[in-house]
Design goal:
2 copies of one chain form a homodimer. The longest helix of chain A has 16 residues. In chain A, helix 6 packs parallel to helix 9. Chain A contains 20 helices and no strands. In chain A, 71% of the residues lie in helices and 0% in strands. Chain A has 4 domains: 57 residues, Annexin (Annexin V, domain 1), CATH 1.10.220; 71 residues, Annexin V, domain 1 (Orthogonal Bundle), CATH 1.10.220.10; 76 residues, Annexin (Annexin V, domain 1), CATH 1.10.220; 70 residues, Annexin (Annexin V, domain 1, Orthogonal Bundle), CATH 1.10.220.10. Chains A and B meet through helix 8, helix 9, helix 10 and helix 12 of A and helix 8, helix 9, helix 10 and helix 12 of B.
Chain lengths: 316, 316
């Protein structure tokens, strides 16, 4: 499912660290070498490289990358080099700050990560920001947005496959009733979406479709100007079919007037090691163009090369 | 701070397991031996005894204890023998079931455990009940109770000592304003109580006292018949001074018409390895009677002996 390509024979961490140090040396930076190394190492390997680099040179690899690189390429390399938990914590913190605030990023991370991974992001948030994720999310949101987002980021959903069909029927009816009444911020609706396991929700959404003849998402797409409603619908998409959610973020990020590089970088760096192959399939199916060609057509230079490497282009 | 007394030389787990097996054998059960062993072993040692017992006899020590013992003594021994996380998960599950439901137990566990311990209880809940704690709490509560309890059980508070004094002043004023307006279920008030670190809340409550001349708890004790208000006040007590909260539970459990053995058993088994010495001090201070004498006067037999052993009476 991951698109990341790691060579069959990986150099020792000290060799990678040495090569990276060389890439920074002298006039100019050897971006190709940075991509060749970092974009082809998995999370555990990148962690070892950072540790070895710090031990060998007394410097933080991330700080050196930050100093040597710039613009979208810099952001892609930095995000990618972080561990998944640190990266999520970083993105979440950014999303709660005024100038970079984004309910979308909060929702995306809360609903597409596994329960353990979301919890690890909360631990990394403590370690780095000396406060809790939920206090920042609750502090920076109000009203319906807070009512929806706080339970989503604090959830620790059960991850077993067990499903209670009676409950699924009952809760599908509750969801249908609330949506019919346009009670989108109803606390029962939020309770179901924010606490049930993904397997249980899947059964509930299937029952909703069987019983009421329409996908729950479609029933929510009645008013495309309502930001809260769009978030609620996206939450359901993230929980049900994350690959479709990510395909849409990529599609909207690439299409239209100018590329949204933040969305593009975030999705590629956070999914390359998880489910990027599934997302690429979805992209091809929906757009009749492979994702790599779409990215190549819309980006350039080292940034383009970095993204393409992460989505599995070329050899490791 | 713990009252548990462990002997300086602890027998090997297989010896303890063997002795326990003997205590169950033949006519009658040797309760004194069970107390002598289990009430003087810490969580890691009890875990080893259970594992060794299962390996040696192919039976679950907890099931054998359940079959051999009865009544309050049985409940005390079973709760104590569980690991802290399993025990909290068990108590929380009980508290969400109709016949044994208790918002108080949910609140107590959510607000007096460390962030890591509360999270471990959530993991143990998954493992044992095949669902999440928050889905049961949310499902079994409604209205203001749900609004308060769900964020409390899902919190993963920051535990560092860092305090933001500007924020403390600001939020003390928010709390005072909401309480003055009798807006006890206000979402800002719940946000502050349920997300801030205990150190931060302590600074906030101190500022409240300095600025408004009254402890925040006292300002909440205006209507002693309002169950929600009592819970909110108890949450603040648990977060601020858990030893005082537990002293009160013990005092009310022991005093009055008949003893509330469930409260007594729960507090003793959950605090013996944590802060029972502090609770005993508070008890003596508030009641002018040592806790062990109060318990001895109100309970009897093996149950009494078990509780007294856990609060540090006699030799290990």
């Amino acid at each position: 499912m991951a698109s990341l390509k790691v060579p069959t024979s990986v150099p020792e961490p000290y060799e990678d660290a040495e090569q990276l140090k060389k890439a920074f040396a002298g006039w100019g930076t050897n971006e190709a070498l940075i991509i060749q190394i970092l974009a082809h190492r998995n999370a555990a390997q990148r962690k070892l490289i950072r540790e070895t680099y710090a031990a060998a040179y007394g410097e933080d690899l991330l700080k050196d990358l930050d100093a040597e690189l710039s613009s979208n390429f810099q952001r892609a390399v930095l995000l990618w080099t972080l561990s998944p938990a640190e990266r999520d914590a970083y993105l979440l913190n950014e999303a709660t700050k005024r100038l970079t605030s984004s309910n979308w990023v909060i929702l995306e991370i809360a609903c597409t990560r596994s329960s353990d991974d979301l919890f690890k992001a909360r631990q990394a948030y403590h370690a780095r920001y000396k406060k809790s994720l939920e206090e920042d999310v609750a502090y920076h949101t109000t009203g319906d947005f807070r009512k929806l987002l706080v339970p989503l980021v604090t959830a620790f959903r059960y991850e077993g496959e067990e499903v209670n069909m009676t409950l699924a029927r009952k809760e599908a009816n509750i969801l249908h009733e609330k949506i019919s009444d346009k009670a989108y911020n109803d606390e029962e609706l939020i309770r179901i979406i924010s606490t049930r396991s993904k397997a249980q929700l899947n059964a509930t959404f299937n029952h909703y479709l069987d019983q009421h003849g329409c996908e729950i998402n479609k029933d929510l797409e009645t008013d495309s100007d309502d930001e809260y409603l769009k978030l609620l619908s996206a939450a359901i998409e993230c929980l049900k079919t994350p690959e479709k959610y990510f395909e849409k973020v990529l599609r909207l990020g690439i299409k239209g007037t100018g590329t949204d590089e933040w969305d593009l970088t975030r999705v590629v760096t956070t999914r390359a090691e998880v489910d990027m192959e599934r997302i690429k399939e979805e992209y091809q199916k929906r757009n009749s163009v492979p994702l790599d060609r779409a990215i190549a057509g819309d980006t350039s230079g080292d940034y383009e090369r970095m993204l393409l490497a992460l989505i599995g282009h070329g050899d490791a």
